[in-house]
Design brief:
It contains twelve helices and three strands, in the order αααααααααααβββα. By secondary structure, the chain is mainly α. The active site is at 59, 131.
Length: 240
Amino acid sequence: MMARAKRLPVPPRTDTSSLVEAWGAPIDDALLSLALVHRSYANEAGGIANNERLEFLGDSVLSVVIAERLFHDYPDVAESDLSRMRAATVSQAPLASAARRIGLGDYVYLGKGESLHGGRDKDSILSDTFEALIGATYLTHGLQAARRVVLERLNFLLEDAQERGHHQDWKTLLVEYAQGKGLGEVSYEVEGEGPDHRRVFTARAFIAGIDGPVGSGRATSKKHAENAAAQNAMGALDPQ
């Protein structure tokens, strides 16, 4: 596995054979090692490579695989509903749940701060690492194998995607609302504060046809802060 950086934490489990078995596909050793390196560890280890590029790739593969599955499974469902169902499957919380099922947090290389403050069970870290593993699987075996693994690992989410997708993707709902009212484009301003292991983001949502922010939200990732801001905006603009 990975050589231990001086005085940096080592994960509870460094033998990845059980992880690979639970994942359902072997992964190139170098890619697997990289997929498990969080940026907090990489920074404290002197700026070594981290898993964010693999996460970027895995996120794209994941989106295509889930979109294709939902497209075929729900032939009579509208695009807007499919978008919400996909969001309810590939967003941070459900992916973190899938990561916990295979014990992924025990294998992630974290910096001291994240290790001391519950980083191994943090939704953002678990979901990002899960996506990095998808990216590593894609590079090792190609799309067909990556598709199989994704569908196996996320089948428990896909089984009730339609129910969970109801009003999950608030950003999509806000865009649809703004378009329906002829109010123009939706945009966000996001600011982060705090150290890496306690980073909190505050997002403000704006609609071109309305002066000032229409909603705000806070979360531990930019994506979820924006979604929270959109939910806050929808509550004010279109209360149910």
